[in-house]
Amino acid sequence: MKILIPGGAGFIGSHLCEHFLEQGHEVTAIDNVSTGSIENISHLVNHKKFQLIVDSILNVSALEPLIQQSDHICHLAAAVGVKLIVNDPVTTIETNIRGTEIMLHYANKWRKPVLFTSTSEVYGKNTNETFSENDDMVLGATTHSRWSYACSKAIDEFLVLSYFRKRQLPATIVRLFNTVGPRQSPQYGMVLPRFVKQALEKRPITVYGDGSQTRTFTYVNDVVLAISKLIETPKAIGEVFNIGGTEQISILELATLVKEKTKSQSEIVHLSFDEAYEPGFEDMKRRVPNIEKLKTFIDFHPTISLSSIVDNVIAYFKSNALK
Ligand code: UDP
């Protein structure tokens, strides 16, 4: 199969490219290398079944022929990272909405199936113990730019589902819950690479708020396996799936775990959300997926414990000389 991966030079995209190549597929990545990087896929560039097109998905003349030549599209190109979103909401909204709009238009024109990667952020401030796919979105005011990300991804989801329902475009949506692993950059705010880098560099580990907020981290290899099984599952078409881990941890506990595992002398410090992001910033207290639907459709079970995830991320940063 020929698989097109918009966003293929990103953190998750690069792992997906690798996985599909290992499975014998042909892979084309199109990426503007903004938050992604050539380095993420440098080990793949000489692979005879891989090609990278450095361009924006907003450039129709580059994107359309790639769509036309592909058998399946895994759409990952998006602005990501809470820090980036707060700093640059215009790019977030434009990339996420216009990019997906263009991609779906041409996927529909050439009748190519699409897997769209959304986010657990769409559940927003919903206070449920766990989130199921049909749960409400509870988003904050438009004056808080954080919510532009959830809103842009929610609009994308509406668009994907509308193409499926009204134009019979084969499409599947996945909502990713705090995906982590090697190659994730600390630059755009993601907590685990930030903590690991801070600990290894003996700098203060910065916990935002009191650190009682919890997250459920998912190892990138598990996300990749789930995506690759879903695109081979015809009954997944027209469906939305949470992809996430099962081990919930508070951010303060995560900071402590990273400090212990790196044997770091770093001090754990607290910063207010206002200082860390912007005045009035709203965080979520808890974010845990219900993954029953994914289990039913593809027998998904996360394979890597949180402890091993943290070990792997530490090993990655050590072997990559703390770039
Ligand atoms: N966080 C933190 N210190 C950091 C970066 C993030 O305490 O240096 C917190 C952040 O406020 C949130 C959690 O860690 O409560 C997860 O943040 P991330 O940006 O990784 O993902 P989110 O779940 O917010 O999308």
Write a short abstract of this structure.
With 323 residues, the chain is of the alpha/beta class. Helices cover 40% and strands 17% of the residues.
Uncertain segments? none
Ligands in the structure?
A: uridine-5'-diphosphate
Bulk shape: globular
CATH topology of the domain at 2-180 and 219-246 and 286-303: Rossmann fold
Q: Give the biggest sheet.
A: 7 strands, parallel
Radius of gyration: 19 Å
Number of strands: 13
What is the H level of CATH, i.e. the homologous superfamily of the domain at 2-180 and 219-246 and 286-303?
NAD(P)-binding Rossmann-like Domain
Q: Helix segment count?
A: 11
> Biggest sheet, strands in spatial order?
3-2-1-4-5-6-11
Q: What string, H for helix and E for strand, traces the elements in order?
A: EHEEHEHHEHEEHEEEHEEHEHHH
In the CATH scheme, the class of the domain at 2-180 and 219-246 and 286-303 would be Alpha Beta
Q: Helical content, roughly?
A: 25-40%
Q: How would you classify the helix and strand content by structural class?
A: alpha/beta
Straight-line N-to-C gap: 35 Å
Structural write-up:
- The protein is of the alpha/beta class.
- It has a domain at 2-180 and 219-246 and 286-303: NAD(P)-binding Rossmann-like Domain (Rossmann fold), CATH 3.40.50.
- The protein is 40% helix and 17% strand.
- The protein has helices spanning 11-22, 60-69, 82-87, 89-109, 147-167, 191-200, 220-230, 251-262, 273-276, 292-298, 306-319; strands at residues 2-6, 26-31, 50-54, 72-75, 114-119, 171-176, 179-180, 205-208, 214-216, 218-219, 240-243, 248-250, 268-271.
- It has a 7-stranded parallel beta sheet with strand order 3-2-1-4-5-6-11, sandwiched between helices.
- Helix 5 links the parallel strand 5 (114-119) and strand 6.
- The longest helix has 21 residues, at 89-109.
- The protein is globular and about 55 Å long.
- The two termini are 35 Å apart.
- The model has no long low-confidence stretch (mean pLDDT 95).
- Uridine-5'-diphosphate (UDP) binds at residues 82, 121, 178, 189-191, 194, 206-208, 213, 215, 251, 283, 287.
